[in-house]
Amino acid sequence: MKIKKNNIRIFFISLFLCLGLFRICIFSNQTYRVYSFIVLSAIFSVVARNVKCIKRNRWAIIFGIVIAFSVIYQSLSTTSLFNACTYFLEFTVPFLCVDYLCVRFGTKSTLKGFMYASLLVCSVMDLSVLLGMDIDKTHYQNLITYLFGNKFMVAYLHMQTLGILAEYATLSRKLNNIKVYFALLSYGIYGMAICSYVNCATGIVGNLVVVTLLLLPISDTIKKTLSKPLTMMVVLLIANVLLIGSDVLLQIPFIQNLITGVLHKDLTLTGRFRIYAMLPDLFKNSFIIGYGYNSDIFAGLIGYGNAQNGILQYVLDCGIVGAITLIINWISSVICIKNKERFSWPMICVIYGFIICSLVEVCFKFNFILVLSIISGLRFIETKNFENGK
Predict the structure, then answer these.
(1) Is 57 within 8 Å of 376 (Cβ atoms)?
(2) CA distance 337 to 102
(3) Which of 42, 57, 264, 361 could make an S-S bridge to 95, C-beta 3.0–4.6 Å?
(4) Element (H, E) at 179
């Protein structure tokens, strides 16, 4: 009975964390920010009491401080102070919460709670899509708004949920079970199908990357190499340089066919190269601390859009300081699972899915932060107990 109560407790904490991070679009932005602040503050008051927990997640806290400071630096007012505090909570509470739950209830039980919470949120989001829900009639940036966001949120929720499902299957030693294998494959295909339904080419590619890495027979040596932070940073750097710094990738016939024939996009990536060309001048004006997290600098200039790139958006919003602290927080989270690559591979697959999506979209936000926090929590896996089936 005690275990059942703990499972329910973990589920509701996980669910409220998700609902505090992912905007419920039936509420106005201001109303939701107040709700988010209250929910995340309540969780913070519970999970941030342990000094060791604070020390383990110090880079997440520093990153949250940088995010908050970027907002206050641009405009010191009651509204900006409130927004800064909320952003700080949104970027730090996931790490502290996962740490708290893993230490108190165990990694596997924590993953189970997040699995059900993520499945519920993702399923409700899909239902809002299939029912044709269109909350924001103004169609901001020409995007339909569903219950928890636009088409990109549909994609990122599916990537996140697929990874957590596979991670729980791994900790339960069922990933090699043929039924589980086909269940994950089916869910991955369903994720790509619903991304196609909402016309999200980025989501199709991201989910395809996750499914492929998850289910292909990849050797432990390759998994270990891909799980290293250095490998992730090299892949991120090379991919960005190839895509933005040159047209090398777009000269490859396979890539051209993928973009024009499969994804039905033009080779300018729907105007993204126009935006990329504007970035250097914008960086010059506020390179160190940026224009403030969630800035609308592009909307002010051309009426729509953002940096259309995960890392460059942080440079734009929070300056080079923000981008560096994001990278350090990322590296510190992945370093925690050194020598545990065999148990954490599913979440690493999700990271690579986000890396690919980040080349053309701003996706290093709350879904990515939640994935990073779960990876950080996997440090508490006792490999000896895992081998014994505990």
Answers:
(1) yes
(2) 14
(3) 57
(4) helix 178-197
Rounded to two decimals, the pTM is 0.89
Sign for the CA dihedral angle at 249, 252, 255, 260 comes to positive
Concatenate the DSSP letters of all residues of 17-71 into one string. HHHHHS--TTS-HHHHHHHHHHHHHHHHHHHT--HHHHHHTHHHHHHHHHHHHHH
In a 10 Å sphere around its CB, with 0-12 CB exposed, 13-18 middle and 19+ buried, how is residue 144 labelled?
middle
198 and 154 in contact (C-beta within 8 Å)?
yes
Count of residues in the chain: 390
Residues paired with 146 in a beta bridge: 149
